[in-house]
């Protein structure tokens, strides 16, 4: 590896050692080095702050007037973690050398036991190792960023799979999953489960008269009314299909479900969406079917949905803009 130019800083209080290093580096013409010298750690730290003339590598003595042992290395590495550091010491303790490398030094050279070629080799590979380390660090950051982006995209995909794109409430797929989960849970707990089946009255006439963009806005506003009315954490509001919505009300008997249905109708009346082509009212209204039962083992969960649908059909037959509750336990309908 050819290094075209290296700005090296030696932090050493012994002028003779500095001159020896300078002479060794000068003996190798292909190795272009500018050597700067600071006698104290404080002076070295101050020099390294100058970003206009960056230092590529520091050669550090462990016996300085203002830093003894590894304290100088720790301070230097903490202040400039990306700077390659070679220890230049008279201490021959192998444990100290190992600890120095573990704490951030790229190499540990013992005074009097190396020459210019070994110094050049150490400088070259200290810079190369640090370069590889920084590249690895950068790749790691990029991978972390990609991982975060992947997680965000997965969350968006999951949302797309469970949320109705128009109304931003649960879609049919999510409704089915949540309904099955609530049925099983309340079957174990023997607590009531209620459903509201809601249908926007004369929605086709609304779409034909005001256009599909207005129809989309209408459905969005209806969805918001449903969300505000069925607002307990366990309640589920979903678009069932077209202009139909379903509300799952766990731990709710038929009386409680009828109460929530009334809140929905009141909320819809308050926003007063004009509908001049409805035979039920001069505004957008809902027909709501209510069904409730305590889930039982061996009973098909679809029976409660069918009961809510029948109740909705009865509401439409009653002139719409009204609430009808299924009169019996859906699992034991009267003959």
Automatic annotation (TrEMBL):
Signal peptide: none annotated. InterPro entries: CheY-like_superfamily, Diguanylate_Cyclase, GGDEF_dom, Nucleotide_cyclase, Rev_trsase/Diguanyl_cyclase, Sig_transdc_resp-reg_receiver. Residues 191-328 form the GGDEF domain. Keywords: Coiled coil, Phosphoprotein. Residues 129-163 form a coiled coil. One of its GO terms (cellular component) is plasma membrane. SUPFAM superfamilies: CheY-like (SSF52172), Nucleotide cyclase (SSF55073). One of its GO terms (biological process) is cell adhesion involved in single-species biofilm formation. PROSITE patterns: GGDEF, RESPONSE_REGULATORY. GO terms for molecular function: diguanylate cyclase activity. The modification 4-aspartylphosphate is found at residue 61. The keyword Coiled coil applies. Pfam families: GGDEF, Response_reg. Residues 7-126 form the Response regulatory domain. This is Phytochrome-like protein cph2. It comes from Acaryochloris thomasi RCC1774.
């Amino acid at each position: 590896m050819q290094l075209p130019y290296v700005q090296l800083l030696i932090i050493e209080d012994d002028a003779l050692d500095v001159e020896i290093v300078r002479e060794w580096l000068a003996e190798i013409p292909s190795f272009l080095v500018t050597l700067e010298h600071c006698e104290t750690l404080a002076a070295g730290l101050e020099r390294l702050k100058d970003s206009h003339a960056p230092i590529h590598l520091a050669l550090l003595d462990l016996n300085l007037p203002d830093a003894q042992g590894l304290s100088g290395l720790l301070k230097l590495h903490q202040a400039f973690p990306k700077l390659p550091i070679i220890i230049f010491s008279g201490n021959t303790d192998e444990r100290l050398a190992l600890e120095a490398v573990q704490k951030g030094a790229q190499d540990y050279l013992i005074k009097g036991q190396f020459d210019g070629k070994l110094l050049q080799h150490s400088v070259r590979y200290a810079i190369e190792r640090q370069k590889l380390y920084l590249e690895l660090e950068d790749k790691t950051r990029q991978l972390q960023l990609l991982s975060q982006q992947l997680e965000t995209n997965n969350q968006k995909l999951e949302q797309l799979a469970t949320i109705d794109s128009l109304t931003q409430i649960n879609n049919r797929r999510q409704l089915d999953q949540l309904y099955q989960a609530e049925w099983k849970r309340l079957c174990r707990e023997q607590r009531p489960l209620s459903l509201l089946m809601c249908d926007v009255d004369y929605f086709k006439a609304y779409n034909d008269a005001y256009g599909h963009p207005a129809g989309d806005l209408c459905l969005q506003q209806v969805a918001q009314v449903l969300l505000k009315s069925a607002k307990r954490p366990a309640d589920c509001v979903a678009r069932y299909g077209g202009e139909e919505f379903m509300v799952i009300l766990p731990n709710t008997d038929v009386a409680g479900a009828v109460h929530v249905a009334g809140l929905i109708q009141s909320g819809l009346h308050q926003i007063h969406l004009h509908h001049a082509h409805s035979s039920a009212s001069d505004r957008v209204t809902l027909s709501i079917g209510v069904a409730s039962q305590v889930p039982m083992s061996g009973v098909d969960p679809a029976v409660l949905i069918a009961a809510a649908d029948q109740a909705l059909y009865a509401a439409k037959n009653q002139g719409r803009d009204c609430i009808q509750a299924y009169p019996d336990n859906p699992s034991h309908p009267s003959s």
